Amino acid sequence: MNKTPNANRKHIVIYGKTNAGKSSVINALLDQSVSLVSNEEGTTTDPVLKATELIPVGPVLFVDTAGLGDNSNLGGIREKRTLEILHRTDIAIYIMDINDMDLDYYNKMKAKFISLDIPCILVINKIDSVDDEVVKEIKNKYKEPKLISTYTGEGIEELREEIIANMMDKEDDEVSLLAGLVPEGGTIIMVVPVDSEAPKGRLILPQVQCIRDALDNGIKSYVVRDSELESAIKDITNVDLVITDSQAFAKVSDIVPKEIKLTSFSILFARQKGDIKSYIEGTKAIKNLHKNSKILICESCTHNISHEDIGRVKIPKLLNNFIGGKLHYDISIFHDFPENIEEYDLIIHCGGCMINRKTILNRIKRCNRENVPITNYGLILAYLTGILDRSIEIFK
């Protein structure tokens, strides 16, 4: 559980005005001191992340945000960072102080939750600080909120159960990398080139997750280098699918017989983390690119840049050759995603193994809304090497 990447955990985010008791709530839910608690406003300055297991849901990520409505000198910056978390929120918990029932502020946030399809649980905290009659009046007036006290512990278990119920309702959102594509008992070969981009002594996250997904779904998996692929195909009978690193697409396609299906790790992640139909549609924009076109490359992780880097070197080189001129490229990293996406003729996203699905889906929805084509590394490399149809055949 502790080794589950944060990108594969549902993000449960705590929102609310300053001093509403957000940090106290997350500490009470986890029964441990995760966030610093103080009566001073603005104690939480940056989002605090806590990876944990929520039984029976499984691995989740709690995020404690800086308070809204902070009037300090840094309040505006803190609030901006808090609102940026909206795009990766799977479930929102909005904390309200029973002594500061600011429903106007809550309703503004609720509108944002609804626009981003984020389920929200309203929590009224500090019920121990008022008379029983006040609590009774609020219970009669409002049917929606959970009333709690982090001081006495009242209502905490009920809140935890409500969170679990919401998480279980969203279980259908989970997409397996391989289930539905390869039958139980089937066989896959994973092609992992070992070059300067390959981390010494270990596999990269998409390869590890693919192996794990194969184990979870009863699929036999074999891992080989591209140099051993041809002999592996001769040794292994009834191969259902070959999965390759995108940079070896052309070479692997020449080796793998046409009757064996072929795709890439990045394309599998396009299906699991994003919307593969939108990505496939986005590849059509390549035909309309010209020398003055602007391209945005979205990376979800920081890494050393080498002469074999896919996003910054290989894809631009292939695109420039395809267009017959040098295009303009911008790079966005991790959770940075520009406001001015309408300036771009095409957005090319990585597989997204280091950010959660909610983040990528919100980016795709925004691109679709603003008519900006978006695709991903694996699909554009398949297109530029002339094997797009073959690489997506398995999804039909």
TrEMBL record:
Domain annotation Hydrogen maturase F tetramerization: ranges: 278-394
Location of the G domain: 12-126
Gene Ontology molecular functions: GTP binding
Keyword Ion transport: no
GO biological process, one term: tRNA methylation
Annotated keywords: GTP-binding, Nucleotide-binding
GO cellular component terms attached to this protein's record: cytoplasm
Record has Nucleotide-binding as a keyword: yes
Residue stretches making up the Hydrogen maturase F dimerization domain: 177-274
Superkingdom of origin: Bacteria
Pfam families: HydF_dimer, HydF_tetramer, MMR_HSR1
PANTHER family: TRANSLATION INITIATION FACTOR IF-2 (PTHR42714:SF6), TRNA MODIFICATION GTPASE GTPBP3 (PTHR42714)
NCBIfam families: GTP_HydF, small_GTP
Protein name (record): GTP-binding protein
Taxonomic lineage from the root: Bacteria, Bacillati, Bacillota, Clostridia, Eubacteriales
